[in-house]
Amino acid sequence: MKVAVVYNETMPEIYNKTLGINKDIDFKPLFTLASPDPISEFELIAKSIQKIGYEAYTLNIKDSLNTFIKDYDKNKPDVVFNLVEIFNDQPRLEMHFTGLMELMGVAFTGAPPMALGTCQNKTLTKRILSTLGIRTPHYKILNDMKDSFRLGLHYPLIVKPAWEDASVGIDDNSIVYDVKALKNRVEYVLNSFNQAALVEEFIVGREFNVAVFGDKELKVLPISEIDFSAMPNYLHPIVSFHAKWDPLHEAYHKTVPICPAQITKKVRSEAENLALQCYRAVGVRDYARVDMRLSKNDSKLYVLEVNPNPDLQEGAGFMRSAKYAGYSYRKMLKMLIDLAYQRKIEKEKK
Description:
Elements: E1 2-7, H1 38-52, E2 55-60, H2 65-75, E3 79-82, H3 94-104, H4 113-120, H5 122-131, E4 139-142, E5 157-161, E6 175-176, H6 179-193, E7 197-201, E8 205-214, E9 218-220, E10 224-227, H7 241-245, H8 250-254, E11 256-258, H9 265-282, E12 286-295, E13 301-308, H10 317-324, H11 329-349
Parallel strand pairs: 1-2, 1-3
Antiparallel strand pairs: 4-7, 5-6, 5-7, 8-9, 8-10, 8-12, 10-11, 12-13
Helix pairs in contact: 1-11, 3-4
């Protein structure tokens, strides 16, 4: 079995520079301060696949479809481990790369194009889930500052770019408590991201990550909770961009994952069923993470987002849940590859 670990980083050299990790900080870090380096993570995935017994190599396409096509024709991998999340600096084009692979008959891991496109469009996802009776926070879309700000929503609100993922565009100022702050944040999103602003009622309560694995046969992995109890009062209890990606920010150290989450059987069962419904509704496959909150006000679960192809770093959300389900890092990588290869075999038999 030959596996190509394919990703898209147009300027990989920037990760060779230190990002100020020795900078003095005014809080006690809970995690190791380290510069984010996705390139090393891609290499680690390839090395882990090699240790499984499969042949593996990495390929950075650098925004070039020809680079991918030429490599595929030359090396003829059995499976592409797809880690491409952006193309030409546009997250919306993520789906098109998988569309190309489908046209070429390439076996690849993770979600198909339609699922990626659906989940990239947060409002479309919310509409699909709502038609199935799945609770999501009430929301409005604002495309222009001339739109009415009489939204009929209850404060506090959270303002997000409508087409981003990985918490891009979400920071402490995303939570607003009045119309003045709402207008300021919507204007920021419109100008900074050149896209509509999604305005949602902010669900105050506990936050859970529910990982699902599989294609035809699905398995919900142990649920993780994001513990905000250490978050200082001057920061909102949210998983912001800083909380996810900036090891020099206090939010990064005060959003602590707990797996398995300490929840009642009733909440666990409902969260698992919701995650399975969401997984099927938007057409994701192989692996995904469904984020939801248990409201402090009405003790109900609200689905925030469905995340196809979530981060596969060892110790990150999906792999953390896999570990507590009894799957080693290498074992889970192998199972994802085998799912893609099995689809290829079944298609060839038809």
